[in-house]
Amino acid sequence: MDWTTGYISKFSSGIIKETVPPIIIALGLFMLFLLLLAVYVYTALAWSTIAKKLKYKKPWLAWIPIANISMMLQLGGFHWAWVFLILVPILGWIALLVLIVIANWRIFEKRKYPGWFSLSVVFPQIGGILYMIVIGFVAWKDKTARRTGKKRNSRRRKR
Known about the structure:
Elements: H1 3-53, H2 67-75, H3 91-110, H4 127-140, H5 149-158
Helix pairs in contact: 1-4, 2-3
């Protein structure tokens, strides 16, 4: 074994120790970026569809970050200017969250879904995932009115 083998192995192991962690961090950040982009596109598509189904004049607002909150507020019966509560730290954010939950409650009821689905956003840890599932149902699954038991029984008797 000559002197170059030891020198090259020390040199290459040092390079690996210095370059692999930043590469792993960069890949992790890139994956996080892709995940956040997918969530953004999904929620924008869902809210755009909900706005179209509720005959909102500007469903494209779902794609603009602050404007989508004002669109939600308008669909829920509030004035769009309440979105400026985002400029008031902490208390404004809490008040805006309450308004968004109430607006979502009203929107979900307009689409014939239980309003309490809007409370999914306030659950820690799993709230975001639940909320995305809920807006997916509200956007793309049309809920039809259920038949009551009386109508079913009357049809059975006629046969």
